[in-house]
Amino acid sequence: MTRQVFVTGGTGYVGSRLVAELLARGHAVRALVRPGSEGKLPRGAEAVPGNALDGATFAQAVRPGDTFVQLVGTPHPSPRKAAEFRAVDGVSARESATAAKAGGAAHFVYVSVAHPASVMRVYQEVRIAGEAMVRETGIPATILRPWYVLGPGHRWPYLLIPVYKLLEAIPATRTQARRLGLVTLDDMVAALVEAVENPPEGVRIVEVPEIRGARRRG
Predict the structure, then answer these.
(1) Residue 188 domain boundaries
(2) Which of 83, 107, 186, 198 is a Cys-bridge partner for 67, taking CB atoms 3.0 to 4.6 Å apart?
């Protein structure tokens, strides 16, 4: 079934690839962009100039029945960016949830983060709060919880793969290692496409092992 999809963060690391894949699969995509950045969107997407931190600038572009995909966030997250997590990730989640509810969206797709973990605590707190905001809308939702997405410009964690394999082989650490595992950009895009095309009746949580399996299922 063809979906009408509204994407925030459509020119970003994950968003640009997701928009291109959704278009290739025949979905109609409207994407929020900063004014002047319309040309960064894949051809075929409808640009909606606005500010992700101010829902009033894009709420009118959300239509009844839309699938709303929230991808705005701080690039290259690290523990030193706590203030940015609150100012960007937290505020954009709130504004998107409010706009989606006001516009009559039928499905909300939100990228959170795997938790609990002993590092990146503020990032986790902000994304968990975002999950709560999404739930409070009452809109059927898919919440994806990756830990780190490997891809162009995001390759240093490849060095940790042998460590992950060891931890996954040890029964005492296996569950946590899988929950906080690494996923590829292709995995993430496939999982998001799957989410868009298969809306739940309530709230569906997609953890790392399921994100990793999305390409096989697709």
Answers:
(1) 4-149+183-217
(2) 107
The tally of domains found in the chain comes to: 1
Number of other residues whose CB lies within 10 A of the CB of residue 163: 11
Residue in the structure block whose two tokens are 């020119």: 11
Find the mean pLDDT for residues 11-36.
96
| Residue 177: partners with Cβ closer than 8 Å, 6 or more residues away | 164, 167, 168
Q: What single-letter DSSP state applies at residue 45?
A: P
- The 10s digit of each residue's pLDDT in 69-122 is 999 999 888 889 999 999 999 999 999 999 999 999 999 999 999 998 888 999
Domain harbouring 15, CATH code: 3.40.50.720
More confident residue, 116 or 177: 116
Query: Using the 8-state DSSP alphabet, how is residue 147 labeled?
Result: S
In a domain, 172, yes or no: no
Task: Specify if 28 maps to a domain.
Answer: yes
Looking up tokens 């309530």 gives 202
What the block records as the tokens of 102 is 């006001």
pLDDT at 155 over 70: no
Q: How far apart are the first and last CA of the chain?
A: 15
Q: Quote the pLDDT of residue 160.
A: 60
Determine, yes or no, domain membership for 83: yes
Helical ranges in the chain per DSSP H: 15-24, 82-84, 91-103, 121-137, 161-169, 171-179, 185-197, 208-212, 214-217
Give the type of residue at 164: Y
Q: What is the mean pLDDT of residues 156-160?
A: 58
